[in-house]
Amino acid sequence: MDRRHLLSDQDEPTAGPAYHHPAAPTADVPPPPGGYQHPQPPASTPTRHWDIPAISEELAREAFTDYATSSCCYSSKPPKEMVLTDLQALNTYRYRLETFTESRSTEWASEPYNGQLVDGMSGVAPGPWDVAVSVPTLFLDSEMDIRIPHTASIKGCHSCLNLGKSACTRCVASGRIQCEMCGGSGADTSHQRCCSCNGLGRVKCRDCSGVGSNTCATCQGRGQLLCYVKLKIKWTNNIYVQVMDKRSGFPVDLLDSVAGETLLADMNVLVYPVSSFPDEAVNTASRKAVQEHQAQFSTTCRILQQRQTVELIPVTRVHYAWKEKTHIFFVYGIEHKVFTKDYPAKCICCTIS
Q: What ranges does the record give for the region Disordered, renumbered to this chain (predicted)?
C-alpha cells in the first residue's frame, strides 16, 4: 500500500481559506489589482543644452602617456613625439531606469514538531499580500521568508510513517553487513578464521550501530511534523540601460565601466518618461524603458519605486600624426581612459602573432 494511504485524512496539512488547496499553495502570487496611480508629467522646465567641449591638448597627451606606460609592450615615443591635429567632442548620453519591485510566492514548509504553538485553528490566515513587512533599502536586491500566521497544523511524518525511525539503507534493516576483511567468507587468505568477523562473514553495521534503523532525518525522531505555509518575498532592482551610440567607431560597451556626470535624476513610485531632453534619442529610450517595465512588472509584481537618470559621458576623438602617419585614439569617461585600435609603436614580442 502507498505510504500516503497509511496516513489518515487528519494528517494532511491544512492552511485555511486563503490557501484553498490543502496539498499545494499557489507558487507565484500576483499582487491584488489596482493601487497604482498613473505617473504625472513634470512641470515644464526651460530647455537646457549641455555642450561640453573636447578635452584640452594637454589632458589628451597626459591620458595617452598614462595609457602607453600601462603596458610594457608600448613605446613611450608616440605620446612624446606626436602632433595633435584635431580633437572632436563626441559626448554621449547614458539613460538608466531602475524599477524596484516586490514579488511574493508561497510554498509548504515543515519542521519537526517539538510542542510549538499550532495556530491553524485560532484565526483566519491572511492572504499573501496582507502580511505586512518592512521594505528594505530601496534599489538593493534582497529576500525574506516568513511563516504565515494561522496556517500551522500537525501531520504524521511521511518519511518514517510516524515511527520516528527509518530502516538503515546500508544494512537493509538487518543490523549486519558483509565483512570487508574476508569478503564474507569468514576466513582470511591463510584459510584461518577471520579475526574481524570471528568467522561469521558479517559484522555490525557502522551506520546504525547494529540496530537496523536510524533516527528519521525529516522529523528528527519525533514522528510528527509542524506544517505551515511559508511566504517568500523577493525584492529585485530591475535595470534598463541604453547608451546613445554616436556611430563614431568607438565601442560603446566600454562605457559600462566608466562614470559620467548626472544631468537629470527623477524618482517616484512611477516615473514619467523623459520628454524634453535636447537629444531626442534619450526621450525615445525613456519612453521605451518606462513602457516595457510597466508592462512587464505591473501585473506580476508590486512596483515600489522607480528612478531614472541621464548621464553625460565625455568622449573625445583625438587625431594625431606620428612619423608622417595619422592615427586616432579616444579619451572617454571622467576617468579619462583611453581606447585605440592601432597603437603605432609596440615591441617586437607583441607584434608576433
A: 1-49
Biggest alpha carbon–alpha carbon distance for the chain: 103
Cα→Cα distances 288→139, 272, 295, Å: 21, 11, 11
pLDDT band at 9; cut points 50, 70, 90: very low
Query: Terminal CA-to-CA distance of the chain, rounded, Å?
Result: 71
C-alpha cell at 96: 538608466
DSSP secondary structure of 178-236: E-TTTTTSSB-TTSSBPTTTTTSSEEE-TTTTTSSEEE-TTTTT-SEEEEEEEEEEEEE
What is the identity of the amino acid at 230?
Answer: K
Cell of 58: 594637454
Q: Which residues, at least 6 apart from 107, have a Cβ–Cβ distance to it below 8 Å?
A: 25, 27, 229, 230, 232
Strand pairing category for 92-112 and 302-313: antiparallel
Among residues 25, 17, 233, which one has the least CA distance to residue 120?
17
d(CA 228, CA 208): 32
Q: Is the dihedral of CA 146, 150, 156, 158 positive or negative?
A: negative
For cell 496516513, name the residue.
Answer: 7
The one-letter amino acid code at 292 reads: E
Helix (H/G/I), strand (E/B), else coil: 81:
helix
DSSP element (H, E) containing 325: strand 325-332
d(Cα 121, Cα 228) in Å, to the nearest integer?
12
pLDDT tens digits for 96-126? 999 999 999 999 999 999 999 899 888 899 9
Domain boundaries, the chain: 57-97+235-351
* pTM (predicted TM-score): 0.78
